[in-house]
Design brief:
This protein has 356 residues and is an all-alpha fold. It starts with a strand and ends with a helix.
Length: 356
């Protein structure tokens, strides 16, 4: 609050400044749309047939959770503290929950301290956007379905997945994950299992239709974003015209996939050219997240591999940037530590192995 952090536009970011540039105007417009729509419905209920004022017009609107938060807390310039305080508490609860999970997974105090210093949760604690609430919803899904001890709480996981789907479109992958998890465990043996599967499927289809325009815009937006200075069309056209096509195109597509992966973990330049120290600080966790992601896919439990696979599909198809990894960052951190441990232990075993 005393020393605001400048964002990529040079605007001060703190609990006292409503300057979040992370889709904030979009959520404000969605809030105005929902408020206008509610007023229209109330006017129709009070006086059927009476003319109504038009609600705010948007090409598409966000899911209702973030606009509802902006409305309920009256978040705007001059009235930031109520919602900003909630974000601070939510971030503290999120990181504490993951520290508890990492502790029960056997990470030492030093590793826990390193995890608590990752800059991403701090940044999204200060920026009022959908990233932090969605990360909290995913954590609830994960803790309930994949507890360190005890049995999965399926209905609680389903409810949290529904909430996640009402925060961001990629919450749909959590609904799918819960459905697959439930099918794998229950095989739809009871009426309760069938009811849960029907609820998840029906809501998933309804929300998929709701998000169609949103998803189309998300996929189309990546065509104008360069990855290491090259637009997606440049990769698709081939980066190595001097090579035969059967070599040029696979290499170019592989380079595009690699570039998107590096952008996803944060090992990328800035699109807005802020101070180099800020870019370096943002990129540092990428050196942990990249090996963690690779090792999680190789050595993770089945449900973790399924969750990560589903979670990453939208971002590997559309725009890739490290903000989307906030929700699964603790899982990747854990597997990065496991990779280091297994590498060190493997070397020790090879060093002490007796000669044959």
């Amino acid at each position: 609050m005393l020393w605001p952090v400048p964002n990529e536009l040079g605007q001060p970011i703190s609990p006292l400044h409503a300057n979040s540039a992370i889709d904030f105007t979009f959520y404000q417009g969605s809030r105005d749309y929902y408020v206008g729509l509610a007023r229209e419905l109330l006017a129709i209920a009070e006086a059927p047939g009476a003319p109504t004022t038009e609600s705010a017009q948007l090409g598409f609107v966000s899911a209702p959770v973030i606009p509802a938060l902006l409305f309920v807390f009256g978040y705007d310039k001059g009235n930031t503290l109520p919602l900003s305080s909630l974000y601070v508490l939510a971030s503290c609860a999120l990181v504490s929950g993951w520290l508890w999970w990492l502790h029960h997974r056997g990470l030492s105090f030093i590793w826990l301290c390193l995890f608590s210093l990752l800059p991403t949760p701090f940044w999204f604690m200060l920026n009022v956007s959908s990233d932090l609430p969605f990360a909290c919803a995913l954590a609830v899904v994960f803790f309930l379905l994949c507890p360190a001890k005890g049995v999965p709480r399926m209905w609680g996981g389903l409810l949290a997945a529904i909430v996640a789907s009402l925060i961001r479109p990629n919450g749909l992958v959590l609904l799918l994950f819960v459905l697959l998890f439930w099918l794998q465990r229950s095989r739809l043996r009871t009426g309760q299992d069938i009811a849960a599967a029907m609820i998840a499927t029906t809501l998933g289809i309804a929300l998929f239709l709701f998000y169609q325009d949103y998803g189309s815009d998300f996929l189309a937006s990546q065509t104008d974003l360069a990855y290491f200075g090259i637009l997606p069309g440049g990769y698709a056209a081939g980066l190595f015209p001097g090579l035969p096509d059967f070599v040029n195109f696979p290499l170019s597509w592989g380079a595009f996939a690699g570039a998107k992966l590096l952008y996803l973990v944060g090992l990328r330049p800035s699109w807005a050219n802020p101070d180099f120290s800020a870019v370096a600080l943002r990129a540092l966790p990428g050196f942990i997240m990249l090996p963690g992601l690779v090792y999680a896919i190789i050595a993770g439990d089945k449900h973790i591999r399924v969750l990560l696979g589903l979670y990453l599909i939208p971002f590997l198809i559309g725009v890739s940037q490290e903000r989307y990894l906030l929700a699964v960052q603790p899982i990747l951190f854990y597997f990065a530590v496991r990779a280091v441990r297994d590498l060190v232990c493997g070397r020790k075993r090879r060093l002490i192995r007796p000669n044959s």
